[in-house]
């Protein structure tokens, strides 16, 4: 039940209850430590081939942030046997599409091909792992690409620095304190040898999971997996440092001026536990109660009834080590961010002191049944979920059983978890405002 930042501002209420079919899979390890997961689905002549590496922004040197995201781009540059600039041409010429993405915890690459091109997909992903070409031309080219992405998605995007500003104030020791896109100054200062060392350390078979999902013959797939991935050398096992944050015991106040906005934003944020915990799933449900759809508590009260806010939302951003629980809103004049925070606190207080009604609880359970079905409704979603549940949760079968955890959550737990984590002395209040020179114009 992973929620993305983009999806959370426009969550849909889903009517009816669908029943999920069990996702069948087979998993095994190669001698070099690569974990392989196969999921057969002959319903369409399509196959998804994906590799998830256990490397994200949290694995970076604090003076070299942005490396994991940079590699998301860099490893499309070419390989020993795929010329520079040819990767995407090969994919499209064979009827496929591909993409990649990076988080604080992992980096994910995938291709979607007609099923008769499975061997091609496996060869390409093995090339990325075995024979990447990491040279100065590629580094310089992708440096400009990443800079343009940062300008477009962060620097010139209204509220584009919200997440970054929250994280750097919520975390003081943990590498979650910087954003995956990192620092352009760090990337500019990095040497080619540093990029090559990062690749050698993290892009190794024993730090990855390969997923094949779709219409294929299992015996043939296994043969090709062994042929292309089996010869890759096992890497030096990775030792990861653990970072423990001290509990937040009094309100943190911070300010950020955004030159791209005209309306200030009310922002509160709480540090929460790992996505692997039961409490993190309860917090997912709490965010649904507060802001999932127009009948949710915050929307109904502050947008619909009181006309205090243009937009309002709450979401639990769960990650491997910690999470961040956000509540945010755009005030409608003459209301201020402080007015919105007061209204948010009133709704949280209700959750902390009153059980939600049986009717609302049933509606909530129906929503999670639907979300579970939808999360596995296409091959791409299934492939990414299989990889994530193995690499980040340590249990592939959660793809089938996580819904049972949500089903078992009680109204009392919702009240108690709200009381445990969502308190004024345990949070950040971020004063996110228009830049002063813009506000005066």
TrEMBL record:
Residues 36-174 form the Peptidase M16 N-terminal domain. Residues 190-368 form the Peptidase M16 C-terminal domain. GO terms for biological process: proteolysis. It comes from the Bacteria. Residues 1-20 form the signal peptide. The keyword Protease applies. Keywords: Hydrolase, Metalloprotease, Protease, Signal, Zinc. GO terms for molecular function: metal ion binding; metallopeptidase activity. Belongs to the peptidase M16 family. This is Insulinase family protein. It comes from Flavobacterium supellecticarium.
């Amino acid at each position: 039940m992973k929620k993305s930042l983009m999806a959370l501002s426009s969550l849909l209420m889903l009517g009816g209850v669908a029943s999920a079919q069990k996702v069948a899979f087979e998993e095994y390890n190669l001698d070099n430590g690569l974990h392989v997961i196969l999921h057969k689905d002959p319903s369409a002549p399509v196959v998804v081939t994906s590799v998830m590496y256990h490397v994200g922004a949290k694995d970076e040197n604090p003076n070299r942030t942005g490396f994991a995201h940079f590699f998301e781009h860099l490893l499309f540059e070419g390989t020993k046997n795929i010329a520079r600039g040819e990767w995407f041409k090969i994919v499209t010429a064979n009827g496929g599409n591909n993409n990649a993405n990076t988080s604080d915890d992992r980096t994910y690459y995938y291709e979607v091909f007609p099923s008769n091109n499975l061997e091609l997909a496996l060869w390409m992903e093995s090339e990325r792992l075995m024979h990447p070409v990491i040279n100065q031309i590629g580094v310089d080219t992708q440096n400009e690409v990443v800079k343009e992405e940062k300008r477009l998605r962060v620097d010139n995007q209204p509220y584009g620095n919200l997440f970054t500003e929250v994280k750097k104030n919520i975390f003081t020791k943990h590498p979650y304190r910087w954003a995956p896109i990192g620092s352009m100054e760090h990337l500019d200062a990095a040497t080619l040898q540093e990029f090559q060392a990062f690749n050698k350390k993290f892009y190794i078979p024993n730090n990855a999971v390969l997923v094949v999902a779709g219409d294929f013959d299992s015996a043939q797939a296994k043969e090709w997996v062994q042929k292309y991935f089996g010869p890759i050398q096992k890497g030096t096992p990775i030792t990861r440092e653990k970072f423990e944050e001290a509990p937040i015991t009094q309100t943190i106040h911070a300010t950020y001026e955004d030159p791209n906005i005209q309306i200030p934003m009310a922002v509160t944020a709480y540090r929460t536990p790992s996505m692997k915990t039961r409490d993190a799933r309860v917090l997912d449900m709490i965010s649904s109660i507060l802001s999932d759809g127009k009948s949710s508590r915050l929307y109904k009260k502050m947008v619909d009834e009181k006309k205090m806010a243009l937009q309002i939302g709450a979401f639990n951003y769960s990650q491997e080590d910690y999470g961040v629980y956000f509540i945010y809103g755009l005030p409608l004049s003459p209301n201020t961010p402080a007015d919105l925070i007061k209204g948010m606190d009133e709704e949280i207080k209700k959750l902390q002191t009153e059980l939600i009604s049986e009717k609302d609880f049933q509606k909530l359970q129906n929503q999670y049944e639907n979300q579970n079905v939808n999360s596995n409704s296409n091959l791409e979603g299934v492939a990414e979920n299989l990889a994530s549940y193995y690499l980040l949760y340590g249990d592939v079968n959660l793809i089938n059983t996580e819904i049972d955890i949500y089903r078992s959550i009680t109204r009392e737990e919702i009240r108690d978890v709200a009381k445990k984590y969502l308190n004024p002395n345990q949070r950040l209040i971020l004063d996110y405002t228009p830049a002063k020179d813009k506000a005066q114009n």
